[in-house]
TrEMBL record, chain A:
PANTHER family: SULFOPYRUVATE DECARBOXYLASE, SULFOPYRUVATE DECARBOXYLASE SUBUNIT ALPHA
Keyword terms: Decarboxylase, Lyase, Pyruvate
Protein's UniProt name: Sulfopyruvate decarboxylase subunit alpha
Native source species: Litoreibacter ascidiaceicola
Family matches, as SUPFAM superfamilies: Thiamin diphosphate-binding fold (THDP-binding)
From TrEMBL, chain B:
Listed name of the protein: Sulfopyruvate decarboxylase subunit beta
Listed Gene3D superfamilies: 3.40.50.970
Record has Lyase as a keyword: yes
GO biological process: small molecule metabolic process
Amino acid sequence: MSVDNVIIDGFVNNKVEFITTVPCKQLGGVIDAAEKHPDIYHIPSNKEDEGMGLCAGAFMGGKRSAIIMQNTAIGVTINTLVTLTQYYRMPLPMLISYRGELGEPVACQAEMAVHTKALLAQLNIPTYHFHKQSDADEFDKILKYTFMCNKPVAILTDASFWGGY
Amino acid sequence: MIRSDIIKELASTIKDTLTVCNIGLPSQEMHMIDDQPSNFYMLGTMGLASSIGLGLALAQKSKVLVIDGDGSVLTNMGTLPTIANNVADNYVLLIIDNGSYGSTGDQPTYAGKLTSLTKVAEACGCKNVIECKAEDTVQVVKDALAGDEMTVIVSKCESGNIKVPVITMDPVVIRDRFMKTVAAQNA
Ligand SMILES: Cc1ncc(C[n+]2csc(CCOP(=O)(O)OP(=O)(O)O)c2C)c(N)n1
Ligand SMILES: [Mg+2]
């Protein structure tokens, strides 16, 4: 099974029915799979904080939600993560493409990469890093953990995980 | 009429309606005038009321009213295309357009100048966009909630504020009683 489908199946098996996305080149396949899956309502958002608002509403409406985004969006979502997701204690799996790591061709991406883990750590956000495809074996447990503890949880997925650029 | 007059007039109409209230004075006024478990008060996160309400409307069946502000819609302008392209016929977005950032002391917004949020919403693809005078707002909201079509209402009112206490309720309590109300309405 492709890694895109492993991820989407993980969401579906954990009853995540509402997924918002902002694209990254690396996330193209997984976004496509979300769009095609009959059990997922895929709602593209225009900015990641907007997407987190959509997820908060869907969660309160009884649907588990998740966001798929690029690590460059962490800056614009800090206020939302802190004053909405964390303050009201809502679960939010965040599948994040970790741009700017080994193999990165675009120099600018390295600039946010060096801040990514530090920012997540500063926000006390549990953070997992998928580097090898087998790391996705933990995806199911990470989702269960997220909905157990009602926190935003970050899953950083680097270029090696997605199979290069 | 100012925002608090509209909220005062609106309160009895929306008593049991799932209502997402914008940050600052709209939430504080709603809380003071008629606190209900069906109200979700935003204590922060300027701009996201319309997004939270849309997610909620798409996820369940009950009608959802969002009481938003012009400044907040301007800060999260990307919300309007998302609303237009993800039609939820149980969703009513009321933008109280007082032409100012009321909650921070009525600094003017562009919506009070050359920018028409009504036209922006239409250009974004929203189908039922109604601009109304403050005086007509309650009737327009009533009709929208009674109908079965997604509606965006831009209520043009004067800027100005009344004195209201801050909300001291814990956010988890706000969310918990709101979610219980949502679940009961969908049972
Ligand atoms: C990111 C951010 N910037 C600024 C503020 C301060 N702030 C709180 S409410 C508000 C005004 C909102 O204006 P509007 O949506 O028009 O609502 P009104 O108070 O006029 O009803 C501002 C600027 C904030 N809370 N968050
Ligand atoms: Mg205003």
